Amino acid sequence: MSVLDKYARMAGMSEEAWRRHANPWSVWTRFAAIPLAILAIWSRAWIGWWALVPLALVVLWLWANPHAFPPIDRPVAWSSRGIYGERLWLEDRSRMPAGFAVVQRFWTAGALAGLALLVWGLIALTVWPTVLGATLIVYGQLWRIDRLGIFYDQVTLKSRHGSHEVGFR
């Protein structure tokens, strides 16, 4: 079981929760939580330990988010198709084209570099590594969602036409 599988189970990601998680409002409000978390951590310079209060609120929101919006039964939005693709990928990684592994490696390397920069920037209270790190993380997530949306489109297109092969652009 991968780290993502363990996290999904820990977060209570039932079938219903995945459908709610795919709601575009859920996706975009998770992205909106990134600058709020950064601001909450940065606020320690102004309000000291009280910064834990807004940070706790962001963490609480991220935990509740997959359950807060109406479920999506037919993913039409770009973000919804990406989340449905993520679910397909977590269910059966063998269906994913080999090219996706390359994208995942790039995304992982970029995310780790972004995380390192973000942490450094937040510890040192320095703007440029904070912004660059957050940008790398967000860009990587958007790229990942895009690729998973393409995967979802290809799987559903192939299944409608009776083929089980999945290509990857």
Q: Tell me the radius of gyration.
A: 18 Å
Write the element-wise H/E pattern from the N-terminal end onward.
HHHHHHHH
Number of helices: 8
Q: Which percent band covers the strand fraction?
A: under 5%
Shape: globular
Largest sheet: none
How far do the termini sit from each other? 28 Å
Q: Please tell me the overall pLDDT.
A: 88
Helical percentage: over 70%
Indicate the low-confidence ranges by residue numbers. 164-169
β-strand number: 0
Structural category is mainly alpha
Task: Give a short summary of the structure.
It contains 8 helices and no strands.
Give an account of the 3D structure.
- The radius of gyration is 18 Å and the shape is globular.
- Helix content is 75%, strand content 0%.
- Helix 3 (24-42) packs antiparallel against helix 5 (52-64), helix 6 (78-91) packs across helix 8 (127-160) and helix 7 runs antiparallel to helix 8.
- The model is unreliable at 164-169 (pLDDT under 50).
- It is built from eight helices and no strands.
- It has 169 residues and is mainly alpha-helical.
Write the layout of secondary structure elements.
Elements: H1 3-10, H2 15-21, H3 24-42, H4 44-47, H5 52-64, H6 78-91, H7 98-124, H8 127-160
Helix pairs in contact: 3-5, 6-8, 7-8
